[in-house]
Amino acid sequence: MIEYFNNNSDVIISVKNLSVQYDDRVIIDNISFDVYRGEVFVIVGRSGCGKSTLLRQLIGLETPTTGTIIINGDNFTEADEKMTISIMRRNGVLFQFNGLFASMTLAENIELILEKYTGLTPRQMRSAVDLKLSLVGLSGFQNYKPSEISGGMKKRAALARAMALDPEILFFDEPSSGLDPITAVSLDNLIKELNSSLKTTMIIVTHDLASILSISHRIIMLDANIKGILATGTPEELKNYKANQEVYNFFNRTFC
């Protein structure tokens, strides 16, 4: 299968033989895939297929039952506490429900990360906050609290916070969830702009087909029945994927 990035591309995440089991329930069974540096890699599938479970393994909220996750050459699954923190600091996460602290301004939300993980002076932190907010189109909103801005602006503010430490990898959990179609398209365009300009690798879990087809370079589709990867490819490849009716139906919104 022809892929958007060729085999000479730099692998930034390598997942090998990963399985996740809760008690007697197997969610993911022995999957392997690579993510290339600078690409937008999207994880899709029907509800219950393990998308969110896989994301939790990739960002370090959970440890897989078996298998390895290599991030930028470091073994994430076998890392000690110091190495785990080091790896996580190089990544940013935009959670589905934003995770902004309601009692803090947008600037304070970002400064909280900078204070904890950097040695920047207050003046340097203010400059960093201004830059991050400008990147997401929120210049001038430093002193606003989350309750004072729209849902789409909250997503952008949360993205600015996720970018506070200049991450090599950004993870997104259902970024368009709760947004109206126009705002969702605007967020998709921002994601594409940031990926193009900053070359940040982006891993996105979503069920929004329009978003999937708009932003992704490559896609993996998970399936609850096989507890693994049903198909891999570019948006165009998966829209024309005739080898499996389930895949074709998903990407073309057709039903048996």
- Measured as a percent range, the helix fraction is 25-40%
Order of helices and strands: EEEHEEHEHHHEHEHEEHH
Shape: globular
Question: What would you report as the Rg, rounded to the nearest angstrom?
Answer: 18 Å
Strand order in space, largest sheet: 6-7-8-3-9-10
CATH architecture of the largest domain: 3-Layer(aba) Sandwich
Summarize the model shown.
The chain is an alpha/beta fold.
Account of the protein in words:
The structure is a single chain. The protein is α/β, with parallel strands linked by helices and 256 residues long. It has two domains: 11-90 and 167-252, P-loop containing nucleotide triphosphate hydrolases (Rossmann fold, 3-Layer(aba) Sandwich), CATH 3.40.50; 95-160, no CATH class. The chain has nine helices and ten strands. The chain has helices spanning 51-59, 81-89, 106-117, 122-135, 151-162, 181-198, 209-215, 235-239, 245-252; strands at 11-22, 25-36, 40-44, 66-71, 74-75, 91-94, 169-173, 201-205, 218-223, 228-233. The protein has a six-stranded mixed beta sheet with strand order 6-7-8-3-9-10. The chain has a four-stranded antiparallel beta sheet with strand order 2-1-4-5, covered by helices on one side. Helix 3 (106-117) crosses helix 4 (122-135) and helix 4 packs across helix 5. The protein is globular. The relative contact order is 0.18. Mean pLDDT is 92; it is low at 1-7.
